Amino acid sequence: MKPVDFTLHQPTSLEEALALLADHADTAKVLAGGQSLVPLLNFRLARPEHLIDLGRIRALKAIRRDEHRLSIGAMATHTSAGRSNAVLGSAPLIHRAVPHIAHQAIRTRGTIGGSVAHADPAAELPAVMLALDATIVAVSHSGTREIAAKDFFVGNLITTLQEDELLSEIRIVPSTGRTGAAFLEVGRRRGDFALVGAGTQLRLADDGVVKDIKICLTGVSGRPHRAEEAEAALQGKPVTQELLDTAAESVRDSVDPSDDLHATADYRRDVAGTLVARAIRAASDDAHRVTK
Ligand code: FAD
């Protein structure tokens, strides 16, 4: 199918984009990489009268890091974030998650901001941003809001972003010290959205105990999931098989997956626990390698 007719706007500055959005807020859609939106347009599941393409706004593509902050522009692509040394050094969980997103062609066009704004509960980056306590920066013609990731994701494809707002940037406090990360998935075919995904980023103290741990899951509820009880079970302790088993069980108890054509809820729940235990082990091994 083909989309319904729309007017395409291609602003070259953020100010221009925000003015267009203010003029057409309830009839406009923002176009980023188009990897989710274009299929929705073609199936006529989205019928905007105006498309505001962010692709010519260079300022939105930047990835920057200073001592206190990693800043990823909304229009940075999955590929550019995956190849960025600033991302690898500050938030290795993003680096580990990116290769699991779709196929290379989609990663080349799909954007970090598009994925986070789209808020698919099966997508890797919304869950990763939740785990990393990212700050989502939303801009409109009337100002800027900083939204904690935990307050941003409301439900399946639903966020607290307003109709006249753009996601301009994602900010993350850089990791320090012996930090390791891992992202693991179970899916039916490579490149498809996974049935379940689990990511862990952790920092080890000099004596080997876990100082700071973040665990996220995809595909286990209507929005990205953070496994806070499993995090608490590991905090301040060395990674042992007994604690991994405890973490896995607490994840199985805390997630709320659904049955669908691809897998039962029970299968997803079981896999979620197993993947979290394996991801913690892999992240811990990764952190140990940092010291060598
Ligand atoms: P678009 O498609 O352009 O936009 C998506 C939505 O977000 C639209 O509603 C748009 O208006 C809004 N939006 C975009 N940018 C902004 C912004 N800056 N501010 C406000 N709103 C904005 N993703 C995964 O995470 N994992 C996968 O395994 C995966 N597999 C895929 C497989 C296929 C075959 C395809 C086609 C896609 C897959 N995707 C997957 C989706 C892909 O990652 C997309 O890149 C991503 O979901 C959306 O990014 P985009 O830049 O293409 O956004």
From TrEMBL:
The keyword Oxidoreductase applies. InterPro entries: CO_DH_flav_C (IPR005107), CO_DH_flav_C_dom_sf (IPR036683), Diverse_Substr_Oxidored (IPR051312), FAD-bd_PCMH (IPR016166), FAD-bd_PCMH-like_sf (IPR036318), FAD-bd_PCMH_sub1 (IPR016167), FAD-bd_PCMH_sub2 (IPR016169), Mopterin_DH_FAD-bd (IPR002346). The keyword Acyltransferase does not apply. Keywords: FAD, Flavoprotein, Oxidoreductase. PANTHER family: XANTHINE DEHYDROGENASE SUBUNIT C-RELATED (PTHR42659). This is Xanthine dehydrogenase family protein subunit M. The lineage of its organism: Bacteria, Bacillati, Actinomycetota, Actinomycetes, Propionibacteriales. One of its GO terms (molecular function) is oxidoreductase activity.
